[in-house]
């Protein structure tokens, strides 16, 4: 009985931790063949490139703020090759973002100059 309960609890803890990993980390873990031990912290410096705003199946949930955002975002038409530079697209995104008012993974602030991690 104790063994069964331990196995169920272990599986549940592993499932919750694995669910918190972002898309890129999951891909890396599959490539390396490693088992995740704990969820890692979100690295905002890797969120740039082609971004699609979606309502379902988002990679990240984001809240837009007027000041003190975790990531300063500049919308560009080309060369989104640095943290915080986003090209808005409708297909083939690098990341899918859902705009929310609460329970966001991180906050963003739109800027005209100096995009990047705060």
Question: If you had to describe this structure to a student in words, what would you say it looks like?
Answer:
- The chain has 118 residues and is an alpha/beta fold.
- It has 2 domains: 1-41; 43-118, no CATH class.
- Helices cover 24% and strands 26% of the residues.
- It has 2 helices and 7 strands.
- The chain has helices spanning 2-19, 23-32; strands at residues 49-53, 60-64, 71-75, 85-88, 95-99, 106-110, 116-117.
- The protein has a 6-stranded parallel β-barrel.
- It is globular, with a radius of gyration of 17 Å.
- The chain starts with a helix and ends with a strand.
Provide the fold topology.
Blueprint: H1 2-19, H2 23-32, E1 49-53, E2 60-64, E3 71-75, E4 85-88, E5 95-99, E6 106-110, E7 116-117
Parallel strand pairs: 1-4, 1-5, 2-5, 2-6, 3-4, 3-6
Antiparallel strand pairs: 3-7
Oligomerization status of the protein chains: single chain
Number of strand elements: 7
Radius of gyration: 17 Å
Uncertain runs: none
Tell me the major beta sheet. Answer: 6 strands, parallel, barrel
């Amino acid at each position: 009985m104790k063994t069964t309960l331990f196995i169920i609890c272990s599986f549940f803890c592993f499932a919750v931790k694995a669910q918190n990993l972002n898309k890129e980390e999951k891909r890396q873990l599959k490539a390396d063949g490693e088992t995740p031990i704990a969820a890692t912290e979100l690295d905002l410096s890797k969120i740039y490139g082609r971004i699609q705003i979606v309502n379902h199946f988002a990679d990240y949930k984001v809240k837009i703020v007027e000041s003190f955002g975790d990531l300063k975002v500049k919308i560009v038409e080309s060369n989104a090759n640095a943290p915080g530079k986003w090209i808005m697209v409708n297909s083939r995104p690098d990341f899918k973002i859902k705009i929310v008012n609460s329970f966001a993974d991180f906050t963003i602030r739109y800027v005209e100059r100096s995009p990047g991690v705060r």
